[in-house]
Amino acid sequence: MSNSFGGLIAAGLVSGLDGKGGLEGWRWLFIVEGAATAFVGVAVYFVLPSYPSKTKFFTEEQRRLAVWRTTQDANGEPDEGGETSLIKGAKMVLKDWKVSARGARFNVKGVRVPDHRSGSSIDFDVNIPADVY
Fold first, then answer.
1. Is the pTM of the predicted complex or chain greater than 0.85?
2. Do both 70 and 26 map to the same domain?
3. Who's near 27: CB < 8 A, 6+ residues apart?
4. pLDDT at res. 25
5. Per residue in 30-42, pLDDT tens?
6. CA angle centred on 9, ends 5 and 15, rounded to 5°
7. How many separate domains does the chain show?
8. What kind and span of H or E run contains 121?
9. What was the pLDDT predicted at 50?
């Protein structure tokens, strides 16, 4: 659905704001989309809980299930949110091979390999299922 309306909204912004304020329409598109993204990013920081055990909108049963699932994902180690600095967290992410593999998936997606026997090309998609980890 979002792809259907995203193009229409972008077309309306580009054509409707072209030349306004001395900026081309595509520049307005980047400004509007960037401002919306920044707003959502800041709002989500305050809305999403840091840990399942601290949620206010779950029932007690849902909270226990969420804590159990995160414990299972962490190989049985409960994660109640020891204070980790931003720098330490960034280092942990950069050292984790799974994060690099997921990033590589987006950089490799849609690689075309020529097939000289048939005169065409073969499309490859590298997919790493999220539930493997």
1. no
2. yes
3. none
4. 92
5. 999 999 999 999 9
6. 145
7. 2
8. strand 120-124
9. 76
